[in-house]
Structures are given as structure tokens and as C-alpha cells.
Amino acid sequence: MAYMSQEGYDKLVAELKRLESVERPKASAAIAEARDKGDLSENSEYDAAKEAQMKLENKINEMKATLAEAKIIDTSRLSSDCVQILSKVEMTNMVTKAKMAYTIVSESEANLREGKISITTPIAQGLLNHKVGDEVEVKIPRGTIKLRIDAISIS
Fold it and tell me: Whole-structure pTM over 0.85, yes or no?
């Protein structure tokens, strides 16, 4: 089961519709165009078009499966008492004094540029169920970092 926000669910639905209505016909057209060029046994353009279509169909099927298993989280029932999924966490690295803010989201919604990290990441796992003021040590691939939770809000 994939927990996600309504916004994340809506984005996934829109992307699926785009893939099915825009990209799928483009892939079919590319195959038809390559097929028209003659002998398929030595037609690398045809092989590439078929490969691209297969990847597209796999992506569409994965998205459909994710949507079928999705459980939308009711944000009105979430609390900012402790860190959980859809929490926006403001924190300070206790060594470098650098301030950071991340929103903890499902894997399918993660986007570092938007400040959204997956609930499965080491940082998110280290922060879960902690409260404002808590100092937590989080093991990351480069070692261990010490973070202080400065604020928690629901995004």
C-alpha cells in the first residue's frame, strides 16, 4: 500500500493520462514510421521504437498499480505533535549549524528539489515519531549526523 497526499495522487493521475493520451500514440506512430522503412530484420529504428514502447507500457502499468494500491491520507487527522508522513520538519544540523526543512512524503512523491524526501530515507526514518526540541542521531551513507528538530507542521 502506498500512502500519499491528495496532491501527489492527483499528479500521478494527470501524468498517467498524459502518458496514455500523448506518449502512447507517439510511440505507436514511431513504430509505424519505422515499419514503413522496409526490412524489419535489420531495422534498428524499428527495434528502438519497439523498445521505447515497451518501456512506456511498463511505466504505465507501474503507475496504474501504484494508483490501485494508493491510500490517500486525510491531512485534517494529522497532528504536528511528532514527525510522521506529510510532516514538514525544520531542523538544525548540530555540527554545522546548517538549517534544513523537508516534508516527509511517500516514495512516489519524493522530489528533493521541492524539499520532499521519501519516508524510506535514513533521515526520515531517524526523525519519525520525534518531537520539537528532540535531538536525533541519524545514520546516513556518509556517517552519522546529529539533528535538532526546530518545528513540525503539516503540509
Answer: no
